[in-house]
């Protein structure tokens, strides 16, 4: 399955000079340090918000180990005049301020000059295509992304048109700025880059891997607050465990996500209205 709004990288990239001792903030400031690694360039008025959560846990370790790199472009430095103005009032009137096309344009041009191979330019925006696992998978096969984080009322439309910017939304709600959405997109993408999680199986088995939500998970203690782990999971019988998990995943998907259930049924030649012995 591919996402037709996002191009795929045609070939595997070779890594050259990986410097595993660099700390995340060093990597952020040095886009040429890790030739070949998947590269996220983030255009933002709040560069101090990065790496944020992306510097933690497995994604942060992968950043440190050079499996991907992060570079922020401070939009303020592209601003106009003594006060480095980046925004102005909306043409036609109305509340709030809009990020100027000329200012954003210079930042995008710089980011594009730093990018290599296939690097889509994405504006995090509530008007965009909703971020999903298929899109993350598709992005993980590119050479990187340029992410534009909006603020205020958004961005002058002309700059989006000029650079053929793809709009991507985190969901049907309004955030104050694009930074949280950018971090979510990067996290969802980077964890799919080979060797980042160190366990390919866990990616294969996750929710959405086959248009199904994941089955329930359990661990010790065997009984908690009077609730026991389902017997099948303790049976040691691998085929029965796999069948139980598939059955639970199908039930959950049918109950909670009719859209995914229809896609799953279409892929497997099933009738979504029929009770598949659930
Ligand atoms: C206050 S919002 C602007 C909302 C805009 N006036 C509208 O109604 O569509 C400021 C910025 O936050 C980011 N943002 C807000 N909600 C978002 C969402 N659901 N997904 C991705 N980015 C979002 C965008 O970058 C946006 O330019």
Mind explaining what this structure looks like?
The protein is an alpha/beta fold and 278 residues long. It has 2 domains: 24-190, Alpha/beta knot, CATH 3.40.1280.10; 207-267, tRNA(m1g37)methyltransferase, domain 2 (Trp Operon Repressor, Chain A). Helix content is 33%, strand content 15%. The protein contains 10 helices and 9 strands. It has helices at residues 24-29, 57-64, 101-114, 133-140, 157-162, 179-190, 200-204, 231-234, 238-256, 258-267; strands at 38-44, 68-74, 87-88, 98-99, 121-130, 144-149, 166-169, 223-224, 227-228. The strands form 3 sheets. The protein has a 5-stranded parallel sheet with strand order 2-1-6-5-7, sandwiched between helices. The protein is elongated and about 70 Å long. 32% of the residues are buried. S-adenosylmethionine is lined by residues 124-127, 149-151, 153-154, 169-171, 173-178, 181. Its main location: cytoplasm.
CATH topology of the largest domain: Alpha/beta knot
**Radius of gyration, whole Å:** 22 Å
Q: Give me the oligomer status.
A: single chain
What is the string of helix and strand elements? HEHEEEHEHEHEHHEEHHH
Find the count of extended strands (DSSP E, 2+ residues): 9
Query: How is the largest sheet built, in terms of strand order?
Result: 2-1-6-5-7
- Counted by DSSP, the helix tally is 10
Mean pLDDT, as a whole number? 89
For the termini, the CA-CA separation is 26 Å
Which CATH class of the largest domain applies here? Answer: Alpha Beta
């Amino acid at each position: 399955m591919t996402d037709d709004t996002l191009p795929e990288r045609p070939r595997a990239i070779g890594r050259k000079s990986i410097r595993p001792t660099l700390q995340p903030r060093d990597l952020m400031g040095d886009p040429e340090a890790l030739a070949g690694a998947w590269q996220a360039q983030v255009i933002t008025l709040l560069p101090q918000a990065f790496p944020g959560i992306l510097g933690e846990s497995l994604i942060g370790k992968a950043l440190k180990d050079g499996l991907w790199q992060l570079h922020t472009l401070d939009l303020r430095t592209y601003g106009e005049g003594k006060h480095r103005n980046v925004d102005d009032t909306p043409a036609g009137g109305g509340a709030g301020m809009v990020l100027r096309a000329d200012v954003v344009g210079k930042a995008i041009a710089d980011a594009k000059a730093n990018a290599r191979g296939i690097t889509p330019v994405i504006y995090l925006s509530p008007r965009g295509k909703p971020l999903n696992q298929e899109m993350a998978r598709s992005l993980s096969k590119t050479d990187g992304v340029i992410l534009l984080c909006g603020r205020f009322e958004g961005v002058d439309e002309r700059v989006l048109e000029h650079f053929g910017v793809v709009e991507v939304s985190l969901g049907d709600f309004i955030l104050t700025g694009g930074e949280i959405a950018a971090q979510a997109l990067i996290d969802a993408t980077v964890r799919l880059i080979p060797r980042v999680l160190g366990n390919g199986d866990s990616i294969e088995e996750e929710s959405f891997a086959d248009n199904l939500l994941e089955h329930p998970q359990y661990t010790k203690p065997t009984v908690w607050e009077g609730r026991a782990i389902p017997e099948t999971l303790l049976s040691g019988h691998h085929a029965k465990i796999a069948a139980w998990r598939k059955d639970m995943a199908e039930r959950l998907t049918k109950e909670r996500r009719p859209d995914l259930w229809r896609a799953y049924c279409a892929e497997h030649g099933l009738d979504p209205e029929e009770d598949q012995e659930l």
